[in-house]
Amino acid sequence: MSGIIWITGLPGTGKTRLADAVAEALRAHAIDVARVDGDALRRQFGASTSGFDRDSRIALGQRYVAHALRLAAAGKVVVASVVALFDVVRGPLRDSAARYLEVWLRAPEAIRLQRSGDRNALDTPRMGADMTPEFPRAAHLVLNNDDDPETIDRLALQIVAAWCVHNAV
Predict the structure, then answer these.
(1) Distance in angstroms (rounded) separating the CA atoms of residues 33 and 27
(2) pTM (2 decimals)?
(3) Which candidate in 4, 11, 104, 135 could, as Cys together with 116 as Cys, close a disulfide (CB 3.0–4.6 Å)?
C-alpha cells in the first residue's frame, strides 16, 4: 500500500507532533511509512534562512510534493507535515496521488502564536500575518488542536481511521 497523508496548517498548529503520532500509529499496523517534515526539508534543500515570500513558499511546496510523490511511488505511505497553504501546491497531490488524505490542522490563534514564536526574520512575510494562505476548500479532515496533550493522540487515531476508511484498508 502507498499514498500520502498531507497535514497542513499555519505555523505553530502542531503539524509536526501530529504527523509523528500518525506515523507511529501506522507503523503499529505494520504499514511502511515515510515521514516528510517541511521544516527538515527546508533545511535539507538549503532554504532554511530565506524564501518566506509567497513565490518562494510555493516553489518549496512544489518540491515537497515531488518528494512525497516519489516516496509514494516507491510504495510508502507518506505522512507529511508542511506549511504548504496554496492550491497550486496541493492541486498536483489531488491529481497525482492515487491514495491521498488532506488534513487541515487548526489551533487557537493565541496557542499558534505562542508555539510558532517569531522564527522568521522580522522583515520577511509571515504566513497568516502578512500573507494570506489559501485554506483548503476540499480537505478530507479539518481538525482542531488545543493545548491538551491528549489531543494529539486523539487526532492521530482519527486520521488513521479516516485513512483506513478512505483507502479501504
Answers:
(1) 7
(2) 0.86
(3) 11
Q: Please, what is the Cα angle at 92 between 59 and 38, to 5 degrees?
A: 45
Please report which confidence band the pLDDT of residue 129 belongs to, taking 50, 70 and 90 as the band edges. low
Q: Where are the alpha helices (DSSP H) in 97-168?
A: 109-116, 149-166
- Residue keyed to cell 504548504: 84
Q: Helices 87-96 and 54-73: crossing angle, nearest 10°?
A: 10
* Per-residue cell: 21: 503520532
pLDDT tens by residue, 63-96: 899 999 999 999 999 999 998 778 888 888 888 7
Q: What is the pLDDT of residue 50?
A: 60
CA 150/CA 148 separation, integer angstroms: 5
The set of residues, in sequence order, having a beta carbon less than 8 Å from that of 104 and lying 6+ positions away, is: 8, 9, 135, 136, 139, 141, 142, 143
The 10 Å Cβ neighbour count of residue 155 is: 22
For 97-114, write each residue's pLDDT tens digit. Answer: 678 999 999 887 777 777
Cell 492550491 locates to 87
Do residues 12 and 107 make contact, with C-beta atoms less than 8 angstroms apart?
yes
Q: Where are the beta strands (DSSP E) in 40-156?
A: 77-82, 100-106, 141-144
